[in-house]
Amino acid sequence: MLFRTIAAAIMLFASAAQAEVRPTTPKIGDPPEAQNMRLVGWDSLQARSAYQPTIQKQGKRYIAYIGHHGGTNKVAMPVNPMTGKAEPNGTSIIDVTDPKHPKYLSHIPGEPGLFEDGGAQMVRVCEGTNFSKPAPGTFYMLRPFGNSAHEIWNVTDPAKPALISRLTGIKGTHKNWWECETGIAYLVSGAEGWRVPRMTQVYDLGDPANPKFIRNFGLVGQEPGATGPVPTMLHGAISTGPKGNRVYFGYGTNGSGIVQIVDRERLLKGAADPTPENLLYPQVGRMDLSPLIGAHTTYPMLGVPVPAFLHDKIGAKRDFLMIVNEQILNECLEARQMVWFADITAEAKGMVVSNYTAPENGGNFCARGGRFGSHASNESFEPVYRNKMAFISYFNGGVRALDIRNPFQPKEVGYFIPSITKDTDERCVKVDGKDRCKVAIQTNNVETDDRGYIYIVDRANTGMHILELTGEARKAAGLPN
Amino acid sequence: MIRAVILAMTVWSAASFAAEPVWRAADWGRPIDNWGTGMAFVCDNDACPGGARLFARTKVGFCNCYSGVADDEEIDRIGDVDLHGETFNPVAPGVVTEVGPLKGRKRLFDIPNRWFGTTHVLSIVVATDCKAVVATIVSGTAVTPEEERAAVAVLNDKPFQEWAANQ
Q1: CATH number belonging to domain B21-165
Q2: How many helices (H) and strands (E) does chain A have?
Q3: Distance from C-alpha of A226 to C-alpha of A234, rounded to nearest angstrom
Q4: With an 8 Å Cβ cutoff, is B61 touching chain A?
Q5: Which of A60, B4, B46, B132 has the most other CB atoms within 10 Å of its CB?
Q6: Does residue A327 sit at the B interface (CB-CB below 8 Å)?
């Protein structure tokens, strides 16, 4: 505990220095690199590799749920200091009500395994108020169990989570979406017979103890019995629920990406047999991206008033989709993955209208070690940043804050690259057939809460950093000074 | 007499050599994607009547790190057949194969074309950890066991091995 307090104090002090981006490989003791973003608090997450953070307001408390990858070659099962036992990486639960002093509440072990083969990478949380079996005041957590199952837990008391149900019989998982307003879930699974290990299984989880299967779904060519090219596999979906009646699917990570826009009601009520006709029935738009980029996160930004079009009779407000690619290979050994903004006002004919990529030069990111490029955006729909600011995780480029009030011209207004610690893991590339490794920050994912705090988690075991905007970025977001 | 024997041996040797496919380096010549270009070879001697081509490259982080190329779903997903035609059909279920220490599967495909006839494809995908070697033999005639053997020898040969080790 003392070490954590000291470490947090050092990081806070260092953050205040607002260091410039350094063009060298980071060392332990270096301050974070930041512009218009400031460290508020930190938790080590027991030095577990982290994928997805989800922040849930539970009564007067704010709880952070962090999904973890499997273990590493060096530490397959880190010790949980709360139990004294080595536990496979799973889900960390932290009380972040006071963001300066996050309090680790519990760790739920995941599936044993290393890297992408184990853990419980993703996590979603809903209050059961509007579920088909209403349960106001009851909070449920949905998570994958490695690649073999999905689980629902009761986390009303986040210090004492209790397993409710488990969906098994699958061979892949990834980033689920759960509509808290209905209980409908779009699970990323690998169903038997499908030609990709990640496709969609739609379930009604509104009665978490009794999951109800609705249908399997994917792109034509992925279904059982198809032949020919296999469209790239699903990464995840984002639904706007019954009100928006759209589900945005992102397929591919770092190549041959496909964006699919689906009519939610047709998806839920259409014929479930996975024939090509039935799979196409709910589709209202599709964008096939360049072979050089994927479609990792597809975040809708709807009804955005474009400042320059204020007086236009038609199209003054536009619908956009922020498409975030995922960089996979270390040290820039593939095409650059970045952020693209597509105008989907005419959703059957969407087109990319702008892009953002963090500047590599000056940061020397390709040589720092690990991945450099985009990975994910915050996915919160809370008004505090909605259609104003977006936060993009950029691996060794930390998190980047974008002013997206005019999506035709997104603009970086801040960034934060955490300091490495003794726990930060190394990343390797092959040189002359041998591993050459470097220790580097690998900011994997980012999420925000309704107070405006920004949570970033590190794939290379550096923990969770809670941040806030400062200066011009804070002003652009309309936050009080 | 000795000269006659040597001449006879030379003729026999040349004849038997000509019956073996010989792969020589060629341009990649396929559309760019995020897996980059690999190494390409052409066999245009008598042993390859269809003018066979061999394309080989690595794909890192795309395959199943745990089970490797364990079934036809995985070879269909990872293979490069679509680089050579948008529409293709499997000829038969795939079978287990090996390239050196790497294990995986191979599968035959046909790519029909109304003007140029059918292109025959043998897709070979083997993997270790999260790294796959993807090889594709493309020919105007059915891919022969000799062409396949010679192609696997190329994959096991030093130039390709050294190149793949650094990907």
Answers
A1: 2.60.120
A2: 6, 34
A3: 17
A4: yes
A5: B132
A6: no
Query: With contacts defined as CB-CB under 8 Å, which chain B residues touch A328?
Result: 60-61
Give residues with Cβ within 8 angstroms of A365, minimum separation 6: A332, A358, A372, A396, A397
Hey, are the CB atoms on B89 and A227 less than 8 Å from each other? Answer: yes
Q: What is the model's pLDDT at position B50? A: 95
What is the domain range of residue A204? 49-377
CA distance A246 to A248: 6
Asked whether A250 and A295 are in contact (CB, 8 A), the reply is yes
Query: Chain A contact for B90, CB < 8 A?
Result: yes
Task: Note whether residue A237 is domain-resident.
Answer: yes
Would A330 be classed as within a structural domain? yes
Q: What is the pLDDT of residue A21?
A: 59
Produce one character per residue of B134-155: b if its CB has 16 or more CB atoms within 10 Å, e if not: bbbbbbeeebbeebbebbbebb
Kindly list the residues from chain A whose CB atom is less than 8 angstroms away from the CB atom of residue B162: 433
Is there a contact between A229 and B32 if contact means CB atoms under 8 Å apart?
no
Interchain CB contact of A329 with B (< 8 Å): yes
Any chain A CB within 8 A of the CB of B35?
yes
Q: Which residues of chain A have pLDDT under 50?
A: 1-3, 6, 8-19
pLDDT of res. A15: 45
